[in-house]
Amino acid sequence: MRRIFGGLFFTLLSLAAHAKGKPYTDSILQALNQTIERAAAYDSIKIKKIDSIRRQRPQGSPELTYNYYQELYEAYKIFNFDSAFSYGSKMQQLGHQLNDPVRIANAKVKLGFILLSSGMFMEASGYISTVDINGKPDDLRVEYYKLKSRFYSDMAAYNQDRFFSPEYMRQAIAAMDSALQLMDSTGFEYLFHKAEQLYKRGDILGALATFPNLNDPAITERQVAVAACSLGSMYQKNQQRDTAIYLMARSAIADIRTSTKETMAAYTLATFLFELGDIKTASRYIERAMTEAVFYGARQRKVMVSNILPIIEEERINTAEQQNRSLIIYAAIVTLLFLALVAMTIIVFRQIRKLKQAQLAITKAHMRQQEANNQLEEANKIKEEYIGYFFHSNAKYIGKIEKIKQLLEQKLAESKSATDFRFLINSINVRQERDELFTNFDRVFLRIFPHFVDEFNKLFDADNKVQLKENELLNTDLRIFALIRIGITDNEQIARILEYSVNTIYAYKTKIKKRSLIPNEAFEERIMAIKAL
Predict the structure, then answer these.
(1) Strand, helix or coil at 467?
(2) ∠ CA 403-407-412 to the nearest 5 degrees?
(3) Could you say which of 148, 312, 453, 496 is the most buried, measured as most Cβ atoms within 10 Å of its Cβ?
């Protein structure tokens, strides 16, 4: 069942890569580039962790000191060869002092691992061949057989000899079979190495089906780095390049995040991209691989990178030269286009006369349009003047009525028979006439300037906006500036229309302007800018 689900997972991964194409790999390469930019920060965290371990050195017990050296070895084994070798050697010395075969064997296995990681095959072989693994704990035996399998596998890859390499690969497979017999068959390590065994035997599909799920949250980032690198090589072998690039980039990201310098991902990814012709990106990653190899002290890695680095750089130079040749061709084309442009310019100048005639016609049409606009503006002005005149005449009319009423009251006071006069006087309601005048003004004004109240309120904050009562079209504040908007700007005339004193009108205007959000001198300009319908 696990094989079925594992195969299904990687089949879907492959289909996704094929469906998405280059953008699929572009996104993971972009993520890798961003991770490379933060590599120094990850290394800083690694160094701080190592410093923290160093400060916890135990006193007294050789056994605790051995464990302390082992912890430092584990911190350095994928980070720096020299330091890892130093602490591995101290472990071996303490093992001999304690006369403890298990600790001695453990130290030799660990020294063999970093010597192999550094490319020192003969030295690694010396440690591997002297380890007595009989009777040792299962976890140490598993580590030993894994180391032995890797040693022969690397030897086969290094020699590439038709006689020796098959024998090395046979011994590598046999050693891993011994390790698998001691592992938990449900764990990540078992599934990973089992898949690699199938791959070495030529069963790629079986290997893909057996491979553990890299998205399993239970596995560590270091395990992701190792497994993604191996799985990427399998997909590359199976001609599924997009998936291979994705997995190798994912491995390289995990390497950087775990500050792993003993790595193959960046180097392998560079070779994949180089084969696809992406020279620029391949050059960046091969330089990254060289930096990691030098930092760790991996001699064999440096040799491998050194072999391909000049090829990539040479291809990069060839690409640059080809681009230069292309630029020369483009320059020639641009020159021809320039000559063609000169010829076209001559033709264009010949068309200018025709264009001038068309421009003259457009100018005349514009003048006619401008004249129509002026007429429209004049009509608006007449409309505003008419409204002003209307209110001015009505104001005078109401004033006359009020004066007549005062005379009638005076006559009435002098007359003894006042019934008829009093009836006549009571039939004249000046307040009602004035209110009706204001209502008519409000209605006519808002028909011409329907957005006046909203635009007026935009000049104030929320606390100072005008709040109209129910059924109220305009209030005194609005009416003062409504009269100004239609052209009645004289305070005395506004006071006479609204039946206030000039000082009151002035006070109203001053108070309103002080509450506004804009300067006092610009307030009336903003009022005049309110558009009519």
Answers:
(1) coil
(2) 145
(3) 148
Half-sphere exposure of residue 242, counting CA atoms within 13 Å on the CB side?
Answer: 16
What own/partner pairs with CB < 8 Å and gap ≥ 24 does 5-12 have? 5/213, 6/191, 6/208, 6/209, 6/210, 6/211, 6/212, 6/213, 7/205, 7/208, 7/209, 9/213, 9/215, 10/208, 10/209, 10/211, 10/231, 11/208
Cα–Cα separations (whole angstroms), residue 237 to 127, 278, 468: 33, 19, 82
DSSP structure class, residue 463: G
Which residues make Cβ contacts (< 8 Å) with residue 179, sequence separation at least 6? 141, 142, 145, 146, 149, 193
- Environment class of 17 (CB within 10 Å of its CB; exposed 0-12, middle 13-18, buried 19+): buried
Instruction: Using the CB atoms, write b or e for 385-421: b if 16+ within 10 Å.
Output: eebbeebeebbeebeeeeeebeebeeebeeeeeeeee
The tens digit of pLDDT for each residue in 492-523 reads 988 888 888 999 999 999 999 999 999 988 99
Contacts of 7 (CB under 8 A, 6+ apart): 205, 208, 209
Long-range contacts formed by 443-449: CB under 8 A, 24+ apart: 443/473, 444/387, 444/390, 445/387, 445/474, 445/482, 445/486, 446/473, 446/474, 447/533, 448/383, 448/387, 448/532, 448/533, 449/482, 449/485, 449/530, 449/531, 449/532, 449/533
338's tokens: 């320039």
Is the pLDDT at 111 greater than 90? The verdict is yes
Give the global pTM: 0.56
Beta-carbon contacts of residue 114 (< 8 Å; ≥ 6 apart) = 77, 81, 84, 85, 88, 262
